[in-house]
Specification:
It is globular and about 50 Å long. By secondary structure, it is an alpha/beta fold.
């Protein structure tokens, strides 16, 4: 069976600086796959190249039977590859409802009302704050909004970039419970995180990135059993 997402030899960077140096990564339909690594390892750069925000320097991206190598970000979204970016990137001067509606601007617009109902079912707090300006909400609420906006596009694969960043320990627990719930509902997820322990608890497989290359990959259980890996790369 072919992978839902298959990237091979992906290269990219900024200006003359090469950040990604030939990354291979796969996500199967229905999987949670974790991409782990310290700050500056290249994880967010990989997301942005994968999603067409930055142009790839080389390599290929196949997604759901389509060749997205070098595709424009609008075409990536149309294909159903949706990113919830690091730092949430909500629109602070727009309401909760307006932020959510923008999530379906390119994809699934005709099912906007049904998807709004679904998002409010997952995040009742957003429905309570439907007219509130997004910038006045707490960090946890803004993260809910960012994920809800991503769900409005009916993703085939949802990329979550550092979803627990800046959240209190209690909200981090709630975030990983939510990730389990979305996966149980059939969503495929690429989880990009520095929170190693909890990421490996929810993911079936993981990749460890360092300096723009994949250093280790395998099942979450196997990675946790490697003493060298835990000490050198996972901080455990």
């Amino acid at each position: 069976m072919s992978a839902l997402l298959n990237m091979e030899g992906l290269r990219g960077g900024y200006g003359a600086v090469e950040v990604l140096r030939g990354v291979d990564l796969q996500v199967q339909q229905g999987e949670i796959v974790a991409l782990l690594g310290s700050n500056g390892a290249g994880k967010t750069t990989l997301n942005n190249v994968l999603c067409g925000i930055y142009q790839a320097w080389g390599g290929s991206v196949q997604f759901d039977g389509q060749d997205l190598s070098g595709a424009h970000y609008r075409d990536v979204v149309k294909a159903g590859l949706i990113q919830v970016p690091e730092g949430r990137k909500i629109f602070p001067n727009l309401s909760v409802l307006e932020n959510l509606e923008l999530g379906s601007f390119t994809r699934a617009r005709e099912r906007r009302a049904a998807n709004l109902d679904r998002v409010f079912g997952i995040f009742p707090r957003l429905k309570e704050r439907i007219t509130q300006l997004a910038g006045t909400m707490s960090g946890g609420e803004q993260q809910m909004l960012a994920i809800g906006r991503g769900l409005m596009a009916e993703p085939k694969l949802l990329i979550l970039d550092e979803p627990s960043l800046g959240l209190s320990p209690l909200l981090v627990e709630e975030m990983f419970t939510l990730i389990r719930q979305l996966h149980a509902d059939g969503l495929s997820i690429l989880l990009v995180e520095q929170n190693v322990a909890q990421s490996l608890e929810v993911a079936s497989r993981a990749y460890v990135m360092e300096n723009g290359v994949i250093r280790f990959s395998g099942s979450s259980g196997d990675l946790l059993k490697s003493d060298e890996l835990r000490r050198a790369y996972l901080g455990m």
